[in-house]
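Predicting holo structure, 4'-deoxy-4'-aminopyridoxal-5'-phosphate bound.
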Amino acid sequence: MSAGAVSLPDPRNTDILVHVGGRLVPRAEARVSVFDSVVQGGDACWEGLRVYDGRVFRLGAHLQRLFASARALAFERVPPADEVRGALFACLRANGMRDGVHVRLTLTRGEKVTSGMSPRWNRGPCTLIVLPEWKAPVFGGRGLALVTSSVRRNPPQCLDSRIHHANLLNNILARIEADAAGADDAIMLDLAGHVAETSACNLFHVARGELHTPALGACLPGITRATVLDLARGAGLAAHERGIPPAELVAADEVFTTGTMGELAHVVRIDGRAVGGGDGPGPVTRRLQGLFADGVRREGDRIADDS
Ligand code: PMP
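Done. Tokens:
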């Protein structure tokens, strides 16, 4: 899949309203200060959320991860969960968004009184950004081509992967390699040479009917990853979280990625080798995709109406 084939953003996003620091503003006016911590050091944490049929999927888990990240980063004057939830719902309602929507929710350390690294210069509250866009699952059901990046995922010795931060330069460098190779995404290894994840998704494979995914350590504790593990185990499938050598992925019966942006997307090529035995998703991937599709329509926090 060449980079040129990436679908263009939905034209309905031209007129969206965005929540920035307590105000709902048109897209063209949605800006943060040059003094904001996210500009100065990528000093922010974030969540990607998806809206299905008037509900935000796994909102509680996303807010829990957001606040855990903010706590790990020692953010102060963090807005309470009710306020974040209220801003999210108000923003979705103002845009008339109920389905087919992805939300990038960012919490920065807030504005500094002068440029500088230390959070001592932060005197104001955190900045909350709610950016909702009309966006179908990004891969649209097609099989993905991945390449292995030369850039390693941050090891926990350098930056704990449980912190879902916005300081994503090594992921972006990996993605540049994928783009240059005409692939959809890049596999990032950990320092030991085991598979960590892609630049934006968790990775799974199926071998002899059992599911395998890298253990938490160098990968994000993805909410789709956790959902898929629950669904698999609930359906009686054995699911293992462990160190996975890259050669195992290439030899697997099925490989797929998970993430809020692209849901469960099957992989057909890794470093030029055909994987997964065909163009379409394999039987276990298809089964899990079906269970996931049922789950997203069944559960989730209904967009509250504050009228
Ligand atoms: N890994 C990385 C590096 C990510 O940025 C994301 C998306 N937030 C994921 C995995 C998937 O996480 P989730 O299932 O919570 O969207």
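The longest helix spans residues 283-298.
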